[in-house]
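User: two proteins, same treatment. go.

Assistant:
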Amino acid sequence: MDYSRRADVHLDPKGHFVQQTHIPEPEPPHGYYPVPLDYETGKLQRRDSRLKKNVRRLRLVSRVLTLILSAYMTATMSLTFHKYYSTRGIIIGGRNAWARDTKIWPTALLLGTSILTLLISLITVGLYCKGVSAANKANYTIGTVAIIAEVGTHMALWIGVSTAYRAGKDEHDLWGWTCSPKAGVIQGQFIDVINFERYCNIQSGSFATSVAQAVLAIAVVLGYILAFRRMRHKGKMEARAAELQQPTAYPHH
């Protein structure tokens, strides 16, 4: 007999044909229909994928918007400072175009915060331009520092800065002075030096932008909430994967 063509026969190490005994797989008891364990795992994977996409989109959009707003405020505050320092030495009618004992700290505070936020946003968006994996790797590397820098600095700092900038508005700071009636009285004298109404509008726009920065921080917080939710679901997926590796046990009757 030609044993070489039989599927249940194989050669042993000594070259003899040996018939392989087939052991049938155990069947579940009658009336027992277990639900596939990979069904729930698939649901977790799909949900994890959706959360992952939402986190990336929200964080990327919020960072791009932060970059744009910070660039705008940096430009407008720098323009205001340049106008102040370039015109404060011009004397017409025994005075310059600015208030006596001008205070510049509100404008300096807003400008400094804008520059800091701009630099952080440039680095973050630059990492995203290199690839999502590079940005995620950077976030993983700095860990808690990233959370403190992005959530804490963005939210708390911008709420505090916008509040302080508005509280500092009076007839002695740059914003308050350019919007004051006293500046309007001497506008005719300094028509070729400064347009007070224009700089009033510029700084009012910067204040509105600082409030927008604080509101945008809420979106950043939402992004981290989604990220933490995703981490929790990842933990469930890993636990489910470990469960799948365990042998299936059927109930005894």
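Protein 2:
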Amino acid sequence: MLVALGSRDLSAAQLYKFSELDNTASGQQSCSILTPLLDQSRDHLRFSDVAVPTGTKAANGSTASNGHAASGLERSTVERAYATFRSMEAPLQQQLIDCLNQKPDVTIIGPQTAETSSRVPTISFVQKHKTSEELNAAIQKAGFAIRHGHMYAMRLTERLVDLKHVRSPGDGVVRISLLHYNTPDEVQHLVTLLDKIL
């Protein structure tokens, strides 16, 4: 696969550099670099709850039962973490939104602003003269991991087709997702590429 937008240290680099998918012993497909990280945490993490192994004492003194007990992680801690993520993502989002807004043949799908109160740094757009598939291929060829298509929002994409914003549900939109681990330099390299191809 592609090397996504860079890294800051060895452990983080493992999360950004993806190798070919391989079949695990259980027959499930997974990214081979992420598999060890997922294996280490499988018994401790749940999407539905912050969980700890059964019988473990949490910081607040409660004991976990069936792996689903309070882990001592306070809501305020999570809120501070997300606020930190937003503050790191905001300038990256601004950099990309500014680039796209300067292109007369580009339509951003969603808020045209980088204001963090109205959007997250997942930015979808279309270009008047090139298909989303063409743009996706060119951007990926340059080493950036992005996507195009309907992003499992088929009814929304069909409505965007009706409004003449999108060519077809299959072609959909180009979607670029930035996160707190991306750097301004990485986004600048992406913007430089977009300046050439949009």
